[in-house]
Design brief:
Elements (H helix, E strand, L loop, with lengths): L12 H56 L3 H21 L7 H9 L10 H12 L8 H16 L12 H15 L3 H10 L11 H19 L14 H35 L2 H22 L10 H8 L6 H20 L7 H18 L7 H15 L2 H12 L5 H13 L17 H6 L8 E2 L3 E3 L4 H7 L8 E5 L6 E6 L3 H8 L15 E2 L4 H10 L4 E5 L5 E6 H5 L5
Parallel strand pairs: 2-3, 5-6
Antiparallel strand pairs: 1-7, 3-4, 6-7
Helix pairs in contact: 1-4, 1-5, 1-6, 1-8, 2-4, 2-10, 3-5, 4-5, 5-6, 6-7, 6-8, 7-8, 7-15, 9-12, 9-13, 9-14, 9-16, 10-12, 11-13, 12-13, 13-14, 14-15, 14-16, 15-16
């Protein structure tokens, strides 16, 4: 006779029933957690949307529009005054974080830690830069705000998020910011996923970015209303004009984007070394001259603020000559460069849009094509996609902000061509090529983030026996910094394993200077990758880390870079 199955045997109907019940409970819990995560992402999007509404309303609707309607003399002086106020705000707030456009990328890769307390001064500086007519966009400060809010929320370690990386919320916050500021939710998603890389995409952040962008867009539209950034009327365009024009514009856009990226980098580098007493007057005079020249050329203040709406009117006006368009192309490039070089707080997304629109109009005139907006919009996508290395976001931006689906194919073609000419160049200096593993991410951190602090320090004249008596053997570092006896500055590194051989060779009175290794140190701001290179060049497993005064504060090792000390 067959034996009945034992209670816990998989064949038991009781076991199967119990298993079905447990699986159902787990599925229900996972579903509820998924809904809760969506609510977190949506809440982030709503918060970012409200912030973007506030800065958009203040900077553009109130300050910049009032400036555009003001007398010419006020428009001439306002940008310089705004940059002075920006410098004062940042100086008082000790705001030393990177530019708003780069901070999100660096935080995404773990190179820096965003500090939400610096958000207020940064947004205030954006208001004085853009609201007073600085040639920059609000998308940079908006992304900075979104990334900060995402960072803050991620650090709350919400149980519903589980072990998910807080970088997901960084990307979601950035996506929500772009979605609101351009009224383009899909563009926001693609921009946030593409920006951290030159040849890759942060696909793991897709769902949070989608939910946050949708919530942010809806929030913005409810408060300030809908509307497209670019208004292009429908028109019939021959296929041959689309293809040939797209290829030509793509080639020119690639070259233009490279030149603009180099110009922006040069301006930022000069701004870091030039004293404020030099760069502010130079920027003020340059921006004042730009206002006067554009007033004579087109009687429209296209050099003030983001400028996209004014440029659209110009590129659609067939009466404006190609020489005027070329002049405006260079004036806008210089105006944005001096704004960035003077320390202005703003983004370069819209400035790239402006340069692309003008470039497309130049080709349109050369080809004697109808002024229907096709070539300017293709130029927009090609310059923006190449300059920021965000081809998908650029093409989606065209589709969402113009509402012209027929522009998508030529925009894709032109953007693909312009990308091929960029090489390693980008308007961002902190993008990486492709996603890497955990070690690659840690190598992009600053040395300060992987430093092991120590208290032990010795001087070169100390006897090695005294060192043995005073060191903390529990630290496990195996090295001690050797410092100058007078000012405490770093002069070398003592490896504890070298002490015993030295005592055997030179006797019990041997001093530290006999065995000290002349290994260069790194600063706290140095990338961890550079510290790893020093270790390799000097065949050492540790490098001293110095503060701003040249005094050692710790050591970085191969294990600390790899994160083994955190395990």
């Amino acid at each position: 006779m067959a034996q009945p199955p034992i209670p816990n045997d998989p064949r038991s109907w009781r076991h199967r029933l119990r298993q079905t019940r447990d699986t159902g409970i787990e599925s229900t819990n996972e579903g509820l957690e998924g809904v809760a995560r969506f609510l977190v992402y949506a809440s982030l999007g709503v918060g970012v949307g409200v912030v973007v509404v506030a800065i958009e309303w203040l900077a553009i609707e109130q300050m910049l529009h009032a400036l555009i309607d003001a007398p010419l003399w006020l428009r001439v002086f306002a940008p310089g005054v705004g940059l002075v106020l920006t410098a004062i705000i940042l100086r008082l707030a000790w705001n030393t974080e990177p530019s708003t456009s780069d901070a999100y990328v660096q935080a995404f890769h773990g190179s820096i830690e965003l500090e939400p307390r610096r958000l207020g001064p940064k947004l205030a500086a954006a208001l004085t830069t853009v609201g007073f007519g600085g040639a920059a966009g609000l998308e940079g400060p908006a992304v900075f705000a979104g990334a900060n809010l995402g960072h803050w929320l991620g650090r709350r370690k919400l149980k519903v998020l589980g072990t998910r990386n807080h970088r997901l919320l960084l990307a979601a916050g950035a996506a929500a910011a772009v979605a609101a500021v351009f009224r383009a939710p899909a563009t926001g998603v693609l921009f946030a996923l593409e920006t951290p890389f030159r040849r890759d995409i942060a696909k793991h952040a897709l769902i949070p970015a989608l939910v946050a962008s949708a919530a942010s867009y809806i929030t913005f539209v409810i408060i300030l209303g809908p509307g497209r950034l670019l208004f292009i009327q429908p028109a019939e365009v021959p296929l041959t004009d689309e293809v040939i024009g797209a290829v030509v514009i793509g080639l020119l856009a690639g070259l233009a984007a490279r030149g603009i990226a180099v110009l922006f980098h040069f301006a930022k580098d000069v701004g870091k070394v030039a004293p404020v007493s030099v760069r502010l007057p130079v920027a003020a005079v340059s921006l004042a001259a730009a206002v006067l020249i554009t007033d004579q050329l087109v009687d429209i203040p296209v050099s003030l603020g983001p400028g996209a709406e004014s440029i659209v009117d110009i590129v659609l006006d067939p009466t404006i000559s190609v020489w005027v368009i070329i002049a405006l192309f260079f004036i806008r490039a210089v105006a944005t460069s001096v704004t960035l070089g003077a320390g202005g707080v703003g983004g370069v997304f819209i400035p790239l849009v402006v340069q692309g629109l003008l470039l497309g109009r130049i080709v349109e005139v050369i080809f004697d094509a109808p002024s229907n907006g096709l070539y300017p919009v293709i130029g927009l996508a090609a310059v923006l996609g190449a300059g920021y290395r965000t081809p998908l976001a650029a093409v989606m931006f065209v589709a969402e902000t113009t509402g012209r689906a027929e522009f998508v194919i030529p925009a894709l073609l032109a953007t693909a061509v312009s990308q091929s000419l960029m090489g390693e160049v980008s308007v961002s200096t902190v993008q990486v090529d492709e996603r890497g593993g955990q070690l690659e991410a840690r190598l992009r951190m600053s040395t300060e983030q992987v430093t092991i602090p120590f208290k032990d320090q010795v001087t070169a004249s100390m006897r090695l026996l005294e060192v043995i008596d005073e060191i903390d053997e529990t630290s496990g570092l195996g090295v001690i910094a050797v410092c100058d006896v007078e000012d405490g500055s770093y002069i070398g590194l003592l490896v504890l394993a070298d002490i015993a051989p030295c005592l055997m060779d030179h006797g019990m009175e041997a001093e530290v200077n006999l065995v000290m290794r002349d290994i260069p140190a790194v600063t706290q701001e140095t990338p961890a990758l550079e510290a790893a290179r020093v270790m390799s060049d000097y065949n050492t497993a540790a490098v001293a880390v110095l503060d701003g005064g040249g005094r050692p504060v710790g050591v970085v090792t191969a294990a600390s870079i790899a994160g083994l000390n955190d395990l």
